[in-house]
């Protein structure tokens, strides 16, 4: 059952529809917006809200999404279906609508169906008619005229028309420029009369020009004659034009017949486009209102109030000045009784509640903050009107009572609901006003009791003090009030639920300057019960203000604690980041040391390759190098977990020059030649070569480690037996190599060339991109065996060859 139209107008829902219609893109969706009705079916309402929610998400992601150039072509499609012939402009609108249809369909079907299920479903309803669209665009131009490409016959006829017209114009031009007609012509021009080309002839020279008279000037001095010489040419031109018009009409009829065969699908396309565009319009309207999606709830499901609006704003008021209202119904009470001064915002709160309920049931999002919950009401009744003058009080009361009687009868009549009927919402403004206060208050109380019996939800405004106590003592009814600032004598428009409005008449009079004697005299005439009620209200207001102050203080303390918590969390994050950076730096230092050890071993291996050492020794050295790497990684792992400090052991004396030590990283014994305490390294003579190693890599050989050295070691000159030089080519070809293969092989070749006694070598790397040449020269730049290098001469290879000079032995 739809919501009564009187309620829609009372709550100004048509204005909401007009604002929504401004966000639509074409006439079909605009009609849907202007005809939008709130639904009373909870499943339909939820589906509408879901569609609007999907559209708003899509609009936020793709703000420029539209339905393109769609038009409402349903009338044209139905006209064609009845056998009518469409003109070119109507066919163009159909083609534009089909283009918009398949474009929107393609965009929507690409969406994630788990996020946009309803929009994707709507897209599947959009028909795909590429043949009809292609036929129309092939035959109809952008101006609505039929194109030559529409048929070969039309193209042929238009060529013939152009030829006939050219011949006609040429003949007429010859006539008006000939000497035979120069004296007879009024002007040497060509014009048209009755669709045929003629020339203006002086009436006095009518006999000089043979032809047909088609018209004459208003003065009768000029006759418009079609010369006999061009009669056949004019006829031919007109015949071709008639044939062209016939062919154009045939083409339009064929296209109209094609439209007629697809008329049902075109109607579906327009209606689906209108549904989608209405959802997009609702999304844009929600953005403009800063609205939120309300939760559509069922009565009796959950313990919270089913109607709960947080900071709700009336959508027709200026958003810059409107004061938000939080209001709820359900739970402990179903009826809310609002009291307070005139122009204090009671009626606005009433209208906001009803209007937002209508918007939610129409599928629109509501201007409020989260949380926002709204049930689906089967009835929404509103009796809202401004108070009239005393002379019209009887008519005002009668009008209000007539509306209330109609509301009660509608609520008491049984409805044909398949399930339990949905709840009703009743909004009553100035309940019981317009009559004697005593009788009015009694009527208001009886009406509220009846509404409680009917288990409806309701909001009512009143000025009667008796109803405040009634609401306080009656389960299911709750007091509320709009606040009033005594200092400024102005309303604040804030609604306080649970607190009845105070009578501010005496306070305002005193504030305005009325003598204290008169104020006290007036106070003494108030009945004892009324005075007690006012005193009670004053106490409640005082306690409410004290509680509000405590809440504000608690909020300030909570904000301070959150601020300190955030600061401590930031300091903790900074400390952890610093610790991680220090650990990373320690790891990097160990990696650098390990890299240095590996570099030393690689250089030793390259040097030992040239001297008389066995392959077995090299293999053992490489194995020891791997073990050294494993030891370094173990050290790094220990470094990641800080170990507790150990007491410094009392060990043997420090290493000194002359001590025999084992170099653990390579597994060789040697004798310490010198020690650099600052660098933490020592020069060790191992057989025929000397190496610099870190002190931590040395361990004293077994003997008497505590016995001090009795002598200083003076290194003696030692000789190294180099292997006999073998044949080494002066040219080293690296063309086609990868850059990472060059360094080791080139270094080995330079060593071989040096041992072979070569003074100069030619390195072939080619030109190419220059990357290989750069790698070669980077190796040569820091090589100890290279004195200098340069590019070869042009005839010897130029930049593709590098000539390197070796140091003298």
UniProtKB/TrEMBL annotation:
ATP binds at residues 340-347. It holds the Pfam family Smr. Residues 644-655 have a biased composition (Pro residues). GO terms for biological process: mismatch repair; negative regulation of DNA recombination; rescue of stalled ribosome. Its EC number is 3.1.-.-, 3.6.4.-. Keywords: ATP-binding, DNA-binding, Endonuclease, Hydrolase, Nuclease, Nucleotide-binding, RNA-binding, rRNA-binding. GO terms for molecular function: ATP binding; ATP hydrolysis activity; ATP-dependent DNA damage sensor activity; endonuclease activity; mismatched DNA binding; ribosomal large subunit binding; rRNA binding. It is an enzyme of class 3 (hydrolase). CDD domains: ABC_MutS2. Residues 732-807 form the Smr domain. Residues 636-658 are annotated as: Disordered. Belongs to the DNA mismatch repair MutS family. MutS2 subfamily. Endonuclease that is involved in the suppression of homologous recombination and thus may have a key role in the control of bacterial genetic diversity. Acts as a ribosome collision sensor, splitting the ribosome into its 2 subunits. Detects stalled/collided 70S ribosomes which it binds and splits by an ATP-hydrolysis driven conformational change. Acts upstream of the ribosome quality control system (RQC), a ribosome-associated complex that mediates the extraction of incompletely synthesized nascent chains from stalled ribosomes and their subsequent degradation. Probably generates substrates for RQC. Homodimer. Binds to stalled ribosomes, contacting rRNA. This is Endonuclease MutS2. The lineage of its organism: Bacteria, Bacillati, Chloroflexota, Chloroflexia, Chloroflexales.
